[in-house]
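Support case: user asked for a sample of complex input and structure output to validate their parser. Sending the pair below.
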Amino acid sequence: MKERRLSRGRALRHSRLQLALAVAAIAAAVSLPVVLISVGGGVSAHELANLQSAGSQIVVSTSGLHSIAQSHTLAQQILRIGSVTAASPILSVAIDAFNATGSVDPVLAEGVIPAEFLPTVSPVERALFPSPLPLGEPTDLVHFDNGTYGGPANYSVIISTPYAQHANLTVGDRILLAPSPNPALGVEYNITGVFGVPPTVIGPTGAFAVMLPLSDLQVLTGYGPAATSPVPDGSDTIQVSVTGAAATHPAALQNVVDAIQQLVPKYSVSTLSQQVQQLEAASGVLTGFYVALSSVGLTIGLLFLALVLLRRVESDRRSIGIRRAIGLPGRMIASEILRAGLAISVAGALIGILVGWAVVEGLATWATSTVQEAAQLAIFSPVVLTEIALGVAGLSLLAGALAARSALRLEIGEALR
Amino acid sequence: MNGPEYRVPSVELAGVTRTYLEGTAEEVHALRGIDLTIGSGEFVSVEGPSGCGKTTLLNLLGLLDAPTAGEIRWDGRSVGALTDRARARLRLEGVGFIFQRFYLLPTLTARENVELPMRALRVPRADRVERARELLREVGLTERERSYPHQLSGGEEQRVAVARALANRPGLLLADEPTGELDSGNTRAILDLLVRVREARKATLILVSHNPEVAARAGRHLTMRDGAVARDLREA
Ligand SMILES: Nc1ncnc2c1ncn2[C@@H]1O[C@H](COP(=O)(O)OP(=O)(O)O)[C@@H](O)[C@H]1O
Ligand SMILES: [Mg+2]
């Protein structure tokens, strides 16, 4: 008698350990998709919001950086198309900046046509810049001078506030900009303004940034026509904003796109809504990938649950045998096992969701740079979380059904021997 | 639910054999062709050496198990070859089992154990509780309804098992060495209880026991040997 009770106590502790392990396995399996989907979804949603709030509706681009040739001429041609209000070529190049103390910093330089840039960015970003941009001649045609670069450069630059603070620079100071860390190749510029760091155009990594006239940057870095090498008037993209019907009707916008495409048959001309669609498609693929990845973890968790439930049936042979001997209907016995499985998986799913949330919060608080930024963007969608929990619960019923089947196949006489 | 008048008028085995692990090297012929009729309300004792097939016989009589060959009839109706589900239903309504090792469910209290068969018949909760209390009173455990099996003594556990066996008012009570693990005082108490509840209900009681005291109280004595009924004695 006594021995029987002792071993029952041990069995109970043993089964509690198994239970805890099963809950933990499912929690671990659930926390992975919670983290991936909430962070991935948050980042996508953020990018989408940025795109949708942009001031431009059409983007001309081609593969490779700095590879849009004849940017100034092209921008002028695009400007002549009806409904187009601004066409802003942008060239981004990493250069080196030497300040008065002689220290050198790598900075991201953006070359723009002063009058064209601001109308093609979102109102939020526009507010970060002095308006109009104090970068000399607004059309950038004085210096550019129809491809000859004959006009007088005014050597104006505006710099980002983080860089201004870092290098202790203010409006009126001078800095030396050079295409490489060699000051001998440098050109001296006047600082005519500062700007806040726009998250999209320059990006979080471009906190140390400067902006100068497109032609100045082209000359400085060799993306403009030089006597020796015929590198053409290069830029990365041309952002185009439109007005009137083109701004509201997709068909009218498509007419503008077609007109631009005729000018540049080899470049890609895409509307923002196309880009939004592409991004949505891409984030859909990504979510699918997360789900696939997570389902591997979930499968393992649920296999574990099935094993634990089967072991419980094994260790509960006696109880199950009694129930069946009394004549309790199979559904009553099965539903108890299903309920146990469901309870374990729901507990696991809830803990997993909490753990996933805690992990994301932890990353948002303590992780470094990009990971932290991504974690801060995470979105915990109740719909998605409910779907995950329901999915796990549904699959746990499968595991329970497996165990229930084996319970109902038990030979009663055998189980009670 | 079937009323208090539900009973199994007569139980009949015709050419019943039961072979375990059939077709394997370890094949066991536990019953080798049993012909037996037990009338309504009889009190039958079964004895015989260990391994002679007593438990197997009881399991077949109570439809816990199906025969390898032969027929089992309840009141003339063939029931041995029914589906698992149909046999479970007949057990639930018609049979009360009492095992040697009490076999209460460890996670349920005494009263919940007694309620269990009624729950399966969907007896309303209030009725169930009332009847379980009544049965626990009948077996002398009014004070223990909230106790778990591990908090009960062996004798108390077996009394709860008797109460549970009676829950759905079965006509057939099957007790397989119900006092095998009890001391002499508890043995007598359980036997008295079984005899008393049987008489009160006019139920059939088939009781496996090595105890001569038991045999003395029964109206009919079966002695088994090697899977067959070796002797079948009725009191005059
Ligand atoms: N489930 C089973 N599987 C295999 N052999 C069994 C099983 N149940 C009982 N037996 C064997 O059948 C024979 C009869 O067993 P049982 O009816 O339990 O005898 P008794 O109750 O008279 O001791 C024994 O030899 C026993 O070992
Ligand atoms: Mg036995």
